[in-house]
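User: Good morning. I'm curious how zinc ion would be positioned relative to this chain. Could you predict the structure with it bound?
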Amino acid sequence: MLKRFLCLMLALLCCVSCCVSFAESTEEESNKGEILFISPTEVAEDVPAGENAPFVPEALSGNEDEPDKAVIGTDNRSNVNPSKYPYSAICYMEINGQCGHSWTGTGFMIDPDWMLTAGHCMVCTEHDMWADSMTLYFGYRSKSDYLYRYNGKWSAWANNDLFNTDAYSANDYAYVKLYKNVGDTTGWFGMRYGMSDAEYEAEWFNVAGYRAGKIKTSIGYAEPYNSNQILHYADTEPGYSGCPVFDDQYYAVAINTAHFTDNSANIGRRITTQLYYDMLDSGMPKE
Ligand SMILES: [Zn+2]
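Assistant: Good morning! Here's the predicted structure, ligand included:
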């Protein structure tokens, strides 16, 4: 399994290409954050799998934009209304690195003020330098048309072994604390953590992510890859890194992180019990 992993060079879905950022001298640098590193907590072997319920704000409920289900093969991604739940809980991330480069990615709310994304969305993969500041757009259509913009302070927890080649993708996740209850406006996804292989194989899952500022969704089946990752077959594009893989009840089951360069499958990072407990250990409240 690992062999295939190393031979097939994973393509990360995050940045199309790095571009030099424009320093906006007029804007105060309030959206800077800190990168913290996860010290895994001890999780007892017998901790059961669990669920944290999704939240749909009253104003965003009644989703008439749910797309028709479709399968992988041709481009089956459907357009959606970005400001309707659950898409409202997914953000278009504009990130600036410590190296001066900027890039984009996708993240999704899992609590009023906590977000999940791919670990490599917090890194300039060209220079291996971490994010310095970022702006999150929810319900994004353009820089002047969106549901919610978060441009404040943040703290992100990433795995220090993210750059370890052998385990790169298995450690490709980050969780982010925002200092405002963004989710009260955008809603958030529930989480199904500690899912079994059989549960991943039992149903089809959705993905929805931002590519160049436009959000689309698609659906596909999934299968286990290893204890930390799944393979899934919903259509994705560059930019979808960090987007949710979620069920029909709007519970996230994985973080979309990468795809094989031969397009045979996409890779999702499981929301393992370990990951869930690490988030609690970092201060995320238990529902
Ligand atoms: Zn860079």
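Confidence is low (pLDDT under 50) at residues 1-9, 15-26, 68-72. Helices lie at 2-7, 183-186, 197-201, 273-281.
Let me know if you'd like a different ligand tried.
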